[in-house]
Amino acid sequence: MILIIKHINIEGPGTLGEFLRETKRKTKIVELNNNGILPSLDECEAVISLGGPMNVYEEEKYPFLKDEHNFLCEAVEREIPILGICLGAQLLAKACQAKVNKAKHKEIGWYDVELSSDGRRDPLFAGLPEQLNVFQWHEDTFDIPAGAVRLAESSAHLNQAFRFGKNAYGLQFHIEVTPPIIESWIKAYVKRGSAGIDTKKILREAKEKKAGLKRQAGVIYRNLEKII
Fold first, then answer.
1. H helix intervals, 23-63
2. Residue 45 phi, psi (nearest 5)
3. CA distance linking residue 113 with residue 204, whole number of Å
4. Could you read off the pLDDT of 105-146 as tens digits, one per residue?
5. Is 196 helix (H, G, I), strand (E, B) or coil?
6. Catalytic residue at 86?
7. Is 138 one of the catalytic residues?
């Protein structure tokens, strides 16, 4: 079973969920924000941790973050394949004993990231160009855990993706989004008149980039399936 961990209703698996359904992989979604219970890792062949507006250090406000921290620590120790996306990547970095803190500035919108030399050789990104255009929505950033390798970087934030061990991956950017998902985040997270966030441009580009983003994500999903 592939376990998908959700932290908020509007941040679901998107195109990743579509891919898993098409490949008929057995999956289970646990909604921690709705009192979902994490299963035994004995049942899991892989763990996918999605995004959310909370911060990894807000465990008092969101007690389920502590449960997930312990769960991911054990999954890393047992070398169960993991993919963390945005908040999920930050939680994975924390589970690998790296620091997660506020970034110098938020990234919201479409940005280019560059695969590092390690990223260009990594099986997760096999078949992709060195530069990827991705969707970002985060205010925190993570350090690369000791012993991990940086797989992608950008001029704005050096640490965009990492691999810990042979099969635990953290991606700061979102590969799973669709235009409706992005629109739902804008409605939920962006206050009217927010400075510096051109929501019309973000949505226009989401529609323009939809097909390319799905193709790019599909390469990563197929690579992930091979790793699992």
1. none
2. -95, -20
3. 20
4. 889 999 999 999 999 999 999 999 999 999 999 999 999 999
5. coil
6. yes
7. no
